[in-house]
Amino acid sequence: MKLFILLLFVFSGLYSQERAITARDGAIMIDAEVTQGLQTTVILKWNLNEQASRYHIYRKELGGIFVEPALAIMDTLVSTWTDSDVEEGKIYEYKILGESRGGINSGGLKDFDYYAYGYKAVSVNAPPYSGGRLLILIDSTMAEPLKNEISRYQDDILKEGWTYVTRYVTRSEEFNGDKVKEVKSIILEEYAKMPFDNIFLLGRVPVPYSGDIVPDGHTNNHKGAWPADIYYGSMNESIWTDAIVNSTSAPERTQNVPGDGKFDVSFLYNGQWGLVVNTSAAVGRVDFYDMPVFEKTETELLRTYLDKDHKFRTGQVDVDRRALIDNNFNAASLPGAFAWSGWANFASIVGKDNVVAGDWIKNTRPENLQEKTYLYSFGDGGGSYSSAGGVGTSANFAENQINSVFTILFGSYFGDWDTKNNLMRSAIASEPMALTCSWAGRPHWYLHHLGLDYPIGYSTKITLNNVVDYLPLLIIQNGQRSFPEGLQLFTHVSLLGDPTLKTNPSPVMDYLENLSVVQEGEDTKLSWEKPSDGQSHKWDIFYTVDKSEKWRKANDKPIIANNFTHDFKFDGEITYLVREVVEDGNPTNPSIHGSLQRYGRGNLAVIERNDVNSVEIGANELELILGPNPANNYVNINFKTNVGNAEILIFDLQGQILNKFEYQNVGNGINQLIWNLNSNGKKLNSGVYLIQLVNNNHSVTKKLIIRD
Fold first, then answer.
1. Domain with 686 in it: what CATH number?
2. Is 23:345 a contact under the CB 8 Å cutoff?
3. Do 548 and 665 sit in the same domain of this protein?
4. Same domain, 594 and 545
5. pLDDT digits over 187-215, tens only?
6. Which residue, 203, 236, 651, 666, is most buried by CB atoms nearer than 10 A?
7. Full-model pTM
8. Phi and psi at residue 140, in whole multiples of 5°?
9. How many other CB atoms are there within 10 angstroms of residue 19's CB atom?
10. Residue 61: which region, alpha, beta or left (left: phi > 0; alpha: psi -120 to 50)?
11. Residues 493 and 412 in one domain
12. Residue 537 belongs to some domain of the structure
């Protein structure tokens, strides 16, 4: 507890005003606007923060890192800044740090100079997010009763640009380490065939447990192994040992002893600030086992969830684009500002002026989840496994309408969600619209990408892999970086809900129902009705020869005619997907996320071809595969190129090139580089590095973790 006491002492000097500090004081709430003309600019607008003496503004491209120095330092009374150095077609992330009036600047505790911060993702006419690849793992006992709902779900995600593999797994109502391993073997088998971005667990899929942790601070009765779906998203089995932890102080369910099937891993990083658990796929779970507080059976609760999912993603849910915060904890220090995960994140998604304080269950405030609708909601309070003080109970959620789609809850005990009538699982079991829930505040989650139509699985993965990109308030002591107590990245971080869900339901384009695909000579001709609204429209065309692989784009630029000719040759069935590109915002009502483009819900068409001279799909794509990752003494860099020159570049997180390997006149095929990390008698320090393949003005970049 020494660190926590230190933080309380340090931060107490910052707040000299009379009123109590709240979590909102720690959040910089940001909007953005893109202007286009002779010069394209990004204009940031944020709420003034009375505790900030100055604002430090940073920027990175999506997938990059924030580096010093700040792009700008603004006065305390300034609440807007214009970035004129931006490029069309890119996504930028901005970070604004509010420097405290306390002027703390001693002992190398650099990050104590700041106490308020926020993030914003901005599109500058960047291509829309198009989807990903999903592994669906379903409790086999639900295969027949939910057959129709599962089929509808698969159709929904295909039309939104996802491809998928579905596997049915053995149900396990009580913890069973062997069954957990059986599920993981299926995941590894499918990942080896082709990587996927997200995993959706539906029904009573065996629950992994890991660690000797107590994220809610109740060391007397809640220390040990917590549910850890992150295990399913990590493809490095070597780190998941079961031989070290011997924790028996907690109830039997969370006790963890060698050989019991519960894993040893507690932290997601090590003492050298290297990522130990690299999450390759975000995992989302919908599991209503042992929820008798609801009148519906487990099967019917799952059916209701899939119905809600379908209605939301097809635009049948009428929900206001705003967010509600039900905060019942004081914020004596930043580690106690749990509701930062609500105030800062929600502002970046729905707009800084659309986030309000209110009640989850109607009490005294006019803003509540029964009388109004909210896209996002946060609630925190002293908890039990089925309650959060000031927010509500599992019984409240079963008896009342919860009119919010994406939810966050924080409080003691219920973050350990594999319990009877658990509060978090009750949130997504409620009606009529709740679809996701996460336990955010210890640590914070980073959801600002959801404003750009990225799925919540993307933000889940970003949160789990965060050690250098986003601040949970890092501190430096004796040259070592660490999280303050309570904000550590443990293995308990989990998403309950469908990981493919996005803030903006893909608009349904009814005119695409008449999509036609026919063979014309050696080509394939697609055609569809053109909307009769007199407006200009543009479309992208995708195709695949296997719905378990991935969609590939057929056109280079969006097309403006309502037809398309594709010269792709294939011996077999080709599935096409046509999607309209929709622009969010206009000159009179600009988007708060920049010049944002997103896709409407598409439609599918299938044609059977019999082309003798067919080509291998994906022949012209770059690939970069690193292994082992994390690496120690060497790393195999396997890379697929096209004919031409190629480079392999190694960067540190400050963007400096540490090494370069050049190849002249490479062929169209797989190449391998074995890089000795001890070359020249000097090994790179433990940490995160970037490996980039450049070939014919195209590139692909992957992260490499080096550790001792």
1. 2.60.40.1930
2. no
3. no
4. yes
5. 999 998 888 999 999 999 999 999 999 99
6. 203
7. 0.85
8. -60, -25
9. 8
10. beta
11. yes
12. yes
